[in-house]
Design a protein that fits this description.
Elements: H1 5-16, E1 24-28, H2 70-77, H3 94-97, E2 100-102, H4 112-118, H5 123-141, H6 143-152, E3 154-158, H7 161-168, H8 174-177, H9 180-200, E4 205-209, H10 218-223, H11 233-256, E5 261-265, H12 268-276, E6 285-289, E7 316-318, H13 326-338
Parallel strand pairs: 1-2, 1-3, 3-4, 4-5, 6-7
Helix pairs in contact: 1-2, 1-13, 2-13, 5-6, 9-11
Length: about 350
């Protein structure tokens, strides 16, 4: 059954009273980038209208949506703040980062070659920024308080789609070096090393996010026009298989790392349900995005001078050809909070 957005937001506010998490610390790609790409040299930006038109004050912030992204809603559910700031945004300081910060960069992935495609922040650099943040936090709060905040924080990791759609299937290189299963294993190994690195730096509560039904993104359906613009099942099968590898990784690391509390957060099923049954969630369109024609535009192609952007984004599952609307993000966040993240409340 669909949950009206107003009731969902009220429910998140009720949950926030019970939260046991000190901070939300985010690593990943455009699904969780709240504006870091604004401050690097890349073409992959969204710091212009109509992005952010339904955000507070109608302000484009670098989020790839018409409003908030899933981590903003999750932060609010944990009683922290309604938006997670980007680490590279100079308008924020360490006092504001203490209760939540995003190191994510749109276009990145687990594979360093993925970040090279769009000249964005690689995963290893996100970790270096986190180490820098740790030092700033200890200077600001003192070692004891900072260590407490860091150990009680929830660390959320969300990326992987670009590794397949912008790298493996899009450019020569990895597809000649690895079979698809070998590449999945390669990425899983990188994710494992990253989580272990966070653990050694004091992280204990960690959420590893799986892949969405990436064959149903409007961009991929547009590419599939010769076959009726349906979802590309090959890509969806790859996403499901990859998610099973991540689920197995979570089981292994929970056994091997003392006191870690690692969960697997799977957006695949809830997004598939929304896409297959949009009307039951209050949507009217799941095949194309709201912005521009919604078939292939994102970033600068979804700009202020494009005359085709829809008037009501709440009727659309996707904002542009790749990214969900604010409303979809709220539903996915609610699903995550109620399921994989519920143990941290």
């Amino acid at each position: 059954m669909a949950i009206p957005l107003l009731l969902l937001l009220q429910f998140l506010q009720i949950l926030s009273v019970q939260a046991k998490v000190s901070s939300l610390i985010v690593f990943g790609d455009s699904s969780v980038d709240s504006g870091n790409n604004n401050h690097i040299s890349t073409m992959l930006k969204s710091d212009f209208v109509p992005y952010g038109r339904d955000f507070y004050g109608g302000k484009p912030t670098g989020r790839f949506s018409n409003g908030r992204i899933a981590t903003d809603f999750i932060s609010e559910a944990f009683g922290l703040k309604p938006t997670i700031p980007a680490y590279l945004d100079p308008t924020y300081n360490i006092s504001e980062f203490a209760s939540g910060v995003s190191f994510a960069s749109a276009g990145t992935g687990y594979d360093n070659l993925t970040s090279d495609v769009m000249s964005v922040i690689p995963l290893w650099k996100e970790l270096e920024y986190y180490k820098e943040y740790q030092m700033q936090l200890r200077s600001f709060l003192g070692d004891e308080k900072a260590n407490q905040v860091l150990s009680e924080a929830l660390y959320l990791i969300s990326m992987g789609t670009n590794d397949f759609l912008a790298n493996y299937y899009a450019v020569p290189g990895r597809s000649t070096q690895y079979s698809i299963e070998e590449y999945q294993n390669f990425l899983t190994g990188i994710a494992s090393d990253f989580i272990i690195g966070l653990y050694k730096l004091g992280a204990r509560k960690i959420s590893l996010t799986g892949l969405p039904p990436m064959g149903c993104l409007p961009l991929e359906r547009t590419r599939n026009f010769m076959y009726g613009s349906g979802c590309i099942e090959l890509y969806n099968n790859v996403a499901r298989d990859f998610n099973e590898k991540f689920r197995g990784l979570v089981d292994v690391l929970n056994r091997e790392l003392a006191q870690i509390d690692l969960v697997f957060s799977n957006p695949y099923d809830i997004l598939s349900e929304i896409i297959l049954n949009p009307y039951s969630f209050g949507f009217e369109n799941a095949a194309v995005g709201c912005c521009a024609t919604g078939m292939f535009e994102m970033g600068y192609m979804c700009g202020r001078y494009n005359p085709f952007t829809c008037t009501d984004a709440s009727k659309y599952v996707f904002w542009d050809s790749f990214h969900p609307t604010d409303k979809t993000n709220a539903i996915v966040a609610h699903h995550s909070v109620m399921n994989s993240l519920a143990k941290f409340l």
